[in-house]
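Support request, please re-run this one:
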Amino acid sequence: MVEWALRSKLTSLMKLIIEVSIVPKGDAIKYMRKWRIYDKCMLGERFKDFGKLLKNNSDILNLTQPDIIREVHQAYLDAGADIIETNTFNGQSISQEDFGLEHLVYEINKTAAKLARSAADKKTADMDDGIWRLVAGAVGPTNKTCSVSPKVEDPSFRNTSYMELKDSYKDQIRALVEGGSHIIFIETIFDSLNARAGIYAYKEYFEESGLPRPLPLFISGTIIDAAGRTLSG
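Re-run finished. Output below.
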């Protein structure tokens, strides 16, 4: 069960937004490169005989190298971050399907949220300064787009659908919430229709969850040109 002492955490979040310089995320991938994490390290003991290359699947480190993920979180908290982000950028079944690990999406996301939450709670207790360190459950854009065809010769082609994206996001959000996230963070949007599917998933999950209130929702977009547009306009 999620710990629902939300009133004090939401009050703390509003104070952070108004009063404090918030560092909601850092480049965890670059930070992790200091360990020179290659495929064997990504696989760990659990996946040492796995048939697919996992070197580019940083989300699997939540399961195979949790100590590294804890150190990344701790480094950003020590640098002054008040909100840290889960290591779940590609934690949707649509993205994990490339690696044959879509069946592990719940475990990946829940474990990631628990790792971040334990680091945040420890920092809050250690500092004892009245500021909650919070966890944003990261929901990345996936590796597919609803709005743009991946085939130049066929503009009508789509390799995913709106409802497939919604269901994939919803499964991820459920695991992030149950792992202890304080915030849902739909991030690095390059396709506004993907983002809409994420928002739909967020609303549907909390409507069905029976929880007393939804977690705060943060959204960030990626602007690809000087006109201020996302990939889908």
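The mean pLDDT is 83. The chain is about 45% helix and 10% strand.
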